[in-house]
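Dear colleague,

Following up on yesterday's call, I've attached the two folding results inline so they're easy to grep. Please treat them as preliminary; we haven't cross-checked anything against experimental data yet. The first protein's sequence and structure tokens come first.
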Amino acid sequence: MEHYAEIRLDGRHLILCHYAFRTWNQIGKKSVNLHGHSHGRLKPVLRQFDVGVDAQGLRPATLDEILQRKPVVINEDDSLKTSKGALTTPDGRYIVVRGRLWRKTNPDLAKDERKHLVAELMSARREVKEAASDPERLLAARKAVDAAKVGLGERGAVWWSDGAPDFNRHMAKNTPYAEWYLDLKAGED
């Protein structure tokens, strides 16, 4: 296995490396850098593409599919909040915070159950803050946070039943929501 390779494929000069580059061989002659390692977290530059599986929506992608993506820069601010609060995906499964998807609470939870779990979550988060210097107490508090989030449907098994995969904590631009999200970002300009 090589750490670096240059190949020609379908008339394109491809620079392949696990790591992304700021500049690469024949960049001025329209060569393309294909890399991994960054898990979709780098701001893309022209003719540079993250080809790691998590940047492809957890599925294989052809070279043509990869090259058809628009290299865009996503601002890492909270500018996509709506007047009703956090930006929500069209299917209502996630909110978007600084470009990242976070699974929403299960909308089918009974009101009292949701209220109880939110109170448990807030209590556990306070305990995490207070237990910082006590490793055993901190571990127990973190487990309580996780249990409340699982109960709310924000972690663990998904609450929808159509078989769609979970993209919790993925960058929106690297998921099937990418086109929707990028269209929103383009509308801000």
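Below is the second protein, in the same order (sequence, then structure):
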Amino acid sequence: MRKTYLSRRDFLSSSVILSSIVPWAFLRPAYPEPGEDEQSLKGFIISDAHFGWDNPRQPSVEVLRKNLKKIVTTFSDLDLIIDTGDAHHNTAKEEHLEEWIQVVSEGCGAIPLFYVPGNHEISHNNRENRELRSASMGSLPCRPYYSFTIKGIHFISLPQMLGVNYISHEALEWVRLDLKVHKEETTIVLSHNALKGTTCPHDDTGYRMVANSEEVLSLLRQSPQVLIWMHGHNHTWEIIPRWQKWFVSNGRFGGFPPRESFGGERLGGIYFKIDREGILIRAWSSSEGKFFDEIDTKYQHLKQHISTSTSYDYDKPSSIAYGVGLSRNGQKTPVNRHYIGKNIQTKVYFMGVDDVWFNENSDFTSYGERPSGGKVLPAVDVIPYGKKKEIQWQWNNPGLLLSTGEDYAGVMTPRRGDARFAYYPTAPGEKYIAHLRAYAYSTGTEVYIVWRIYQSNGVLLLEKKEDVSLLEHGYNDIFSKFVVPDFSDVETININENSDLQLLISVESVFRNSGEGVRVEQLQMKPDKTELFTKNPAIIVKGNTYAYKGILKAGEYSEVPMPSATDSRFVITSIADGNGLITYLLKETGIECQVRNATISGKKGSYNIGVLRAQMANYKPAVVIAPLAKAEIEPFVKQIENIQEFRYLTNSQ
């Protein structure tokens, strides 16, 4: 650790007294230039802790705590730690989320921790908005996808949302913009699931790989700065070259053990080191306290050095980027502040959208099957009505072939849980069009469209059923229009920006008497606009508008400077003429400290601790302050409690 005026030991001996002082001054000398051995970025990745999994194969909380302690003590000069998801099991209670916060978030101490949600956290929006809960637990500023740069190396969080085997178009559009903005920076993509044809090959397309892998790989191939895809989920240790890129499976911090050839019963993760000449990747076992290539010759492939010129730059300021892909006009998105710095520069980037149908998997091309025969259709529900508990359907590549008999069956976008708690955010007064395209194999099939508006706490606010139509033999196209009511008496972010509750819009097509069957090929939603391109994109923050005047076609982007945020929480409102859709990204350059578990407000050295976002069950977490690389300030503390305000001073002050 770099020298400070007050040693860590001295500080810890007085921390109980200091924790009650307001304000609190942090002092440190000037940040030293790196020595020869510091000319690199060093990181460690853990994955799949699975806190709360009730299974004999799950390591105890104490074992996981010792595991992380061994990592941070063995690699004492880490610049960052990354968790690529499944922090807790999907059946875990809130006290198990608290265990992840205690063991991992607090256990990383003054090392910056970056969290990428896994399927067990965010693919089960059946009782609450799990995406929002995960963002709170992991101190994410906005959506589960985001990016950051440390020492000139760029990292992107790209989790699976709306399904364990699916990467949403919303996230991909945002990442497309992010890659344009950071095209000069060596980039590592962090995700939870594997891409088809890379690590751990098998036939489980419904769970163990991304269903729309080709779409993701196409974007990666268009982006030469992307060198590595690093993921969790499969609990294996793998380092595989494909298509002039590398694909890394990050091993097992908890959860079930893989086969011995993939690491077996061991716990650990992936260590990496990046300098100007290349990237070193090594699999590490906490169980033996060794790298895998030191344990057995059969693991020699788990040490790889990628010889390549990188964008490593010790002097480059750190940055964080966040925003929303395929945002709709009037959509409000809350942002929570977890990064501070003395001279942060902020820009907003806008990118045009030309695919006006915004709901996910609207043409049913993304699909997977489990070896057991289970069907996985991301972002879409097939719903039986009446006495039947299941409805007969099969994927018709593309499209869904339904056989309802005399019963009713619905095809809904998004899934029921997502519709009640998370998707798709909208605003009062916005107009939409739904389009159903179906091929009927016989005449007489009945169909009608249902629009629903939910409050994101699961309360159904409105259900509007359209008139029944009879399908003709062959192709049928049915359109329906809808206007979101005012709902001025309902608590949402649209009425009160201090609220996290959203208005959510969904649509369902309901079929009856399918006869010889109906193939549903499209169920789409779009803003009721006639123009094809994004026009005059803008965002509104605290009453101020930041805009680009003109048309942005797909892939075209622009940048607009804006003041840096000082509030611990603020709301962004999307404005989009033309087709009513925009993708936007806010980038804050010059961040110096990460603040975990609570939000933070203030500027120029004086800060106030905000809401404890990571408060789960009855546990009140410590607020963790982690200095980033090239910080002009570095707090002596790594955790603080019972404090609301502090300020820091550099040596020159």
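For the second protein, one point worth flagging: Confidence is low (pLDDT under 50) at residues 1-32, 648-653.

Best wishes,
A.L.
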